[in-house]
Each structure stands twice: as C-alpha cells, then as structure tokens.
Amino acid sequence: MKIKKASKSFIINMILIILLLTILVLPKTSMEAAKNGLLLWFNVIIPTLFPFILLSNLIINTNIINYINYIFTRIMARLFNLPGVAGYALITGLLSGYPVGAKITADLLNKKVITLTQAQYMLTFCNNASPMFIIGFIATGLLDNSRIGIFMLITIYTANLITAFIYRVIYGKSLPIINKSTLLLKAKKSINFSLFDDCIMNAINLIVKIGGYIIFFSIILNCFYLIPIKNSIVKDFLFSLIELSNGSKILVNCNSSIQVTFVLLCTLVSFGSFSVHAQTASVLADTKLNIDKYILSKTINAIITFILSLLITPLII
Description:
Blueprint: H1 2-25, H2 27-60, H3 64-80, H4 85-96, H5 100-110, H6 116-126, H7 131-142, H8 146-171, H9 193-225, H10 233-240, H11 244-253, H12 258-271, H13 273-283, H14 291-312
Helix pairs in contact: 1-2, 2-5, 2-9, 3-4, 4-5, 5-6, 6-8, 6-14, 7-8, 8-12, 8-14, 9-13, 10-11, 11-12, 12-14
C-alpha cells in the first residue's frame, strides 16, 4: 500500500514539474489555455451552475426537502430501493450537470438523510452531464446539429439508467429496505438571512473550486497535446479524457466521420473526464465516500454508452 501511494505521489509530482516547465518554456500557449478555461468558467459554468447550487443548498437545509422526499419515495423505492431524496439528487444532477449530483449526494449524507451505502450507490447514476451541455454546448454549439444532441441525450441517459440497475444488483442486500409509509424527515430550519448567507458562501466556494479545476486541467490538456505524436483518433480521444469541454472540441475537430465523432463524444461525456472526477473528489472530500468506486462506475457507464452509441450510429446521418 505504501509503495502504491509513493508511486502515485511520484507521478503527480512529475506531472506538476513538467507542467511548470511547459509554462516557463511556452508561456504564451499556456496563457491561452488558461484564458480559454477561465472564459469557459465565467461564461458557461457560473450562469448555469451557481443558481442550482444555491437553491439546492437552501432546499436541503429547509423543510422543502420533506415534500420532495414525499413526492419521490414511492418511485425511487420501487426502482432503486432508495429514499425519495435520491430522486431529487438524480433530477437536479441531470438538469445542472457535473458535479452538482455528487454535491447534493454528499450534502444529504452529511445531513444524515441517507446512509453511506445509499450515497455510494447514488453516485453511480446521480452525477451526469446536463441536457444544456449535451444539446446546447456540444450538439448546437460545436456540431451545429441539435438533432444529434437528442440522440446523444437518449444514449447517455439510457446507459446511465442501465448502470443504476446493474449497481442495484451489486449492492443488493447492503441497501436498507425503504419503508414507503415513513415519508417525512426531521424538520429543518426555516429560511433566514444567516442560512441564506451560508448557502451563498457555500455555492461561491464550490464555483471557485470548479473554475480552478477547469483552468488547471485546460493547461494540462494543452501540455499533453503538444507531445509530438502523430495525429490519430486514439490520441484525440485519450487527450479529450483530461478535460470535458475542451476535450469535446478536440473530438469535434478531429478528422473522422460524424458517426465516429458521435460514439466518441457520447463515451467521453458519460465518463466525465479527469477534470470532472477531480471536481467530484473535491465535493466528496468531507465525506467517507470512495472516489475510486465512483470512477469505476463511470468507467462501466462509459463502456455501456460506447456499446449503445454504436447501435444507434445507423440513425446518425
């Protein structure tokens, strides 16, 4: 175990040293990568994620969560053997995108609304890319084809649902039985200025962290892309795994057919990229949730997405 940790630490240290040297040798290129990451954070991430994070903080800390639990308990218990609040994490995670689903799951765990096992299971399918990112940013913005975005959405979310059912079998009896008649949680605080201020600061803190990760991994992606390897689809896909948004641009601009691009984009988005995994690890830092298990579940999800997208490619023209 110590050897494994030492090796991991050595690799991280080497990457940081190489990154620093690249910035010193190629400051203009690195600055451009950082600028692109900053603009992406400012123009896309802040307006789309901040309202969701702030409202989610308020909901989880007030009695509103009781009503959400009441509405979703029966369907979530039947499908996933989870309490109703898991439905809130799933829907909000889908609507707002990475890493909000993980953030809500962590908050519910910290509030002791769900157990550690339930939270670990929820991570396998509650943290996903949003429809706005898939249809708006990728399909419409990069591909100029909103129709492909619909197919991407169906493929990615279907694979996510399959992953959820697979992990329900894996966790099996370790999940507590949900009592459908016990729907209400303990009363939460009412909204006041102190609570509102705390929720704002929590949301700002998370948004700043996400911005830092996006900029950092944008520079890393830029450094890796400077490696003199002959251009190929494999190279583009492997490098795209570093950062989601810039990686999507790389795949769109690679010299391949629309069908191949569709398959690679679906697989990338379902996996999430190492930048997204770092953001997720950050929001899980104050919990006992296992990030390695989460990354494994996203890898399985990506494999399922890859297979489904191959089956759908005949419809992509």
